[in-house]
Amino acid sequence: MSGVLVDCVRCGASVSFLLPFTHETAHKYWSAVSADVTAGRRIVFVAEDAAGATLGTVSVLLDQPQNQPHRGDVSKMLVHPSARRRGVGAQLLAAAERSALQAGKTLLVLDTASDDAERLYERAGWRRCGRIPLYALMPDGTPCATTVYFKLLHEFRPYGESDLPSCLAVFDANCPEYFAVNERADYEKFLNGRPNGFTVCVAADQVVGAFGLFNPSPGRATLNWILISPHVHGSGVGSSMMRQAVEQARRSGASSISIAASHKSAPFFAGCGAIQLSETPDGWGPGMHRIDMELRVGASPSKASANSNLENY
Ligand SMILES: CC(C)(COP(=O)(O)OP(=O)(O)OC[C@H]1O[C@@H](n2cnc3c(N)ncnc32)[C@H](O)[C@@H]1OP(=O)(O)O)[C@@H](O)C(=O)NCCC(=O)NCCS
């Protein structure tokens, strides 16, 4: 662990330390970390190769102020310079997120001064909040900015009867901005049918979104009733739901997803790579135009992401 930290700092990583940086200082740092792990204040992951050599590490800081028990900080994401660009960072990050969720955290925050790390976090669905200039120093003492990110941890599960009130509450919160008032009765009827294929998204023990993916005919999927609580709009949950829908569509053998959007939601789907097929003025109700769209999902994840910006959400 000390070797990874020393080599990262010597290669220019802005991770709290300045040059000259010695193994002794690194060892002291990890000893203090060890005490935090033992006390349950921190989770540390270590990536090793088959021979047991340390390739990298990441931490989740669990110990937060009394009024933020649901938050964790991701910290000290380090991959040894000789082990980079092999997916170690991505695996460490996924492990950190999973363990944070298991530890009861629903919001993760981090900041980084590294462009490589920014790409890693954005690929994993983290949201950029902004850049703070002159935040810290690089190991050689040069001032540097930091970019702050967050991720709302969420899970997907099949819709159950008891989700009906929460799903209707999400609809109500989006009406009349994104849905016409007359659509509520249709939605309630749809939910009362206990739709098999409807998925809810849960964050902090609350239903924050839902979507349905159905296969009316071989090779074709339709996306129905996708909606997200306004208080999590812009947090990456919508894009995460779309990634989930695309995965489900691929698994079912569909090559495209039909989306019956409104003029309000169409730009979001266009950002995910969907193309507009037709527009029906007032198609959903007065002032709510219907936009029919299609999203090609392709056979392999790499093909589909090449023609959409889903991965950047
Ligand atoms: C940021 C950091 C942790 C990334 O670690 P990493 O193990 O290289 O991360 P990954 O391998 O998952 O991804 C890195 C790149 O390799 C690519 N990659 C992943 N697996 C690959 C493979 N098998 N073959 C080729 N490329 C691959 C990824 O797509 C990514 O591409 P990008 O550079 O276009 O974004 C590492 O650069 C680091 O330790 N930096 C110094 C410390 C630091 O600044 N940490 C951040 C503190 S917040």
Explain what the structure shows.
By secondary structure, the protein is of the alpha+beta class. The protein folds into two domains: 151 residues, Gcn5-related N-acetyltransferase (GNAT) (Aminopeptidase, 3-Layer(aba) Sandwich), CATH 3.40.630.30; 158 residues, Aminopeptidase. Helices cover 31% and strands 35% of the residues. The chain contains nine helices and 13 strands. The strands form two sheets. A seven-stranded mixed β-sheet has the order 7-8-9-10-11-13-12, with helices on both faces. The structure holds coenzyme A (COA). Coenzyme A binds next to strand 3, helix 3, strand 4 and helix 4.
Explain the layout of strands and helices.
Elements: H1 2-10, H2 23-38, E1 42-48, E2 54-61, E3 71-79, H3 88-102, E4 107-112, H4 115-123, E5 127-137, E6 143-152, E7 155-158, H5 164-173, H6 183-192, E8 198-203, E9 206-217, E10 220-228, H7 237-251, E11 256-262, H8 266-271, E12 275-285, E13 288-296, H9 301-306
Parallel strand pairs: 3-4, 10-11
Antiparallel strand pairs: 1-2, 2-3, 4-6, 5-6, 7-8, 8-9, 9-10, 11-13, 12-13
In short:
31% of the residues lie in helices and 35% in strands.
